[in-house]
């Protein structure tokens, strides 16, 4: 069974200043996500499911989805503030200001994803090697397996000169994840890599293994995520901004002994659309890869 790619594309883009998921960066109007889906297709993924906001549906179809759907099995689902909440929870969350986060996003796709699947962010570049690694892993497991996977990146390969980034720092032993924790603000301070966490400034080496939200799960993970989500809501239903992060939910699978996460690595260098200043860099990097023959001059046939 070939795996499915699940794309987290419902973010607000507050730091970017626009809908970065569908911003053009390619020579023929392609988005960064076009290149990620192309890499996934070339690596053995047979289907893609996008998780989007209802308010961007029209632009999303015009700028991205319709052309991808002509070349690959594709569909999309919505993530809204009230999605998956009961009527009582909707009332309690009336003052909610932000989306609920990436665990919530993945759970929005539960009804349409029945096979092993990978998860990526819409605004990050991962590299074809990483897609090939997870495609191979997911193609070797059964739907009921609790042997999950992820691809880790070197922290200093994933930093931005434009501002801070959010990365989950991973602890690994014998090629399996032990734990990971989201660090929501890591940045360069002079020549140092600093994480602002728990009210402290912690200096990092830059060589830590980090999660870029590139995971491979079997459908068994939905049960674990569902439990984590319900526990999160009990504590945070009235919170205006607190988010339920996928790295924390994935780590919980390991620490609660509900499954294992095989830790694969890549030396690929990240680039992405975190800030508006990143757009030109992304454009130039993709143009360079096209000139080198890594990508064809035109990705899609239609």
Task: Give a quick set of tags describing it.
302 residues; alpha/beta; Spore Coat Polysaccharide Biosynthesis Protein SpsA, Chain A; eleven-stranded mixed beta sheet; globular
Summarize the structure.
29% of the residues lie in helices and 26% in strands. The protein has 8 helices and 11 strands.
Written account of the structure:
This protein is an alpha/beta fold and 302 residues long. It has one domain (4-150, 210-291): Spore Coat Polysaccharide Biosynthesis Protein SpsA, Chain A, CATH 3.90.550. The protein has helices at residues 32-42, 57-69, 87-92, 102-107, 128-138, 221-236, 246-255, 278-291; strands at residues 4-8, 47-52, 73-78, 117-121, 147-154, 165-173, 176-189, 192-197, 200-204, 209-217, 260-265. Strands 1, 2, 3, 4, 5, 6, 7, 8, 9, 10 and 11 form an eleven-stranded mixed beta sheet that branches. The radius of gyration is 18 Å and the shape is globular. The protein starts with a strand and ends in an 11-residue tail after the last helix. The relative contact order is 0.19. Mean pLDDT is 92; it is low at 12-18.
What is the topological layout?
Blueprint (H helix, E strand, L loop, with lengths): L3 E5 L23 H11 L4 E6 L4 H13 L3 E6 L8 H6 L9 H6 L9 E5 L6 H11 L8 E8 L10 E9 L2 E14 L2 E6 L2 E5 L4 E9 L3 H16 L9 H10 L4 E6 L12 H14 L11
Parallel strand pairs: 1-2, 1-4, 2-3, 5-11
Antiparallel strand pairs: 4-10, 5-10, 6-7, 6-10, 7-8, 8-9
Helix pairs in contact: 1-5, 6-7
């Amino acid at each position: 069974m070939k795996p499915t790619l699940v794309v987290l594309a419902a973010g607000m883009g507050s730091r970017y200043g626009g809908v970065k998921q569908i911003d053009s960066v390619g020579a023929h109007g392609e988005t960064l996500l076009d290149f990620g889906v192309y890499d996934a297709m070339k690596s053995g993924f047979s289907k893609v499911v996008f998780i989007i906001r209802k308010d961007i549906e029209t632009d999303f179809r015009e700028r991205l989805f319709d052309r991808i759907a002509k070349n690959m099995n594709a569909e999309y689902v919505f993530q809204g503030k009230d999605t998956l909440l009961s009527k009582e929870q909707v009332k309690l969350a009336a003052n909610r200001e932000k989306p609920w986060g990436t665990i919530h996003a993945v759970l929005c796709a539960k009804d349409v994803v029945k096979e092993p699947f990978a998860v990526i962010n819409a605004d990050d570049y991962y590299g074809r090697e990483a897609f090939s690694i997870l495609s191979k892993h997911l193609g070797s497991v059964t739907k009921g397996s609790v042997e999950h996977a992820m691809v880790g990146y070197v922290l200093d390969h994933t930093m931005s000169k434009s501002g801070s980034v959010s990365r989950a720092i991973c602890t690994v032993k014998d090629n399996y994840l032990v734990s990971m924790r989201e660090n929501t603000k890591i940045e360069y301070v002079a020549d140092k890599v600093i994480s602002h966490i728990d009210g402290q400034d912690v200096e990092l080496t830059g060589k830590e293994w980090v999660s870029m939200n590139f995971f491979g799960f079997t459908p068994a993970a939905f049960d674990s995520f569902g439990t984590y989500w319900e526990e999160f809501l009990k504590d945070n239903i009235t919170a205006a901004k607190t988010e339920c992060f996928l790295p924390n939910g994935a780590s919980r699978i390991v620490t609660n002994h509900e499954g294992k996460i095989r830790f694969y690595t890549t030396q690929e260098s990240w680039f992405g659309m975190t800030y508006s200043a990143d757009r030109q860099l992304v454009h130039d990097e993709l143009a360079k890869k096209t000139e080198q023959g890594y990508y064809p001059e035109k990705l899609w046939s239609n």
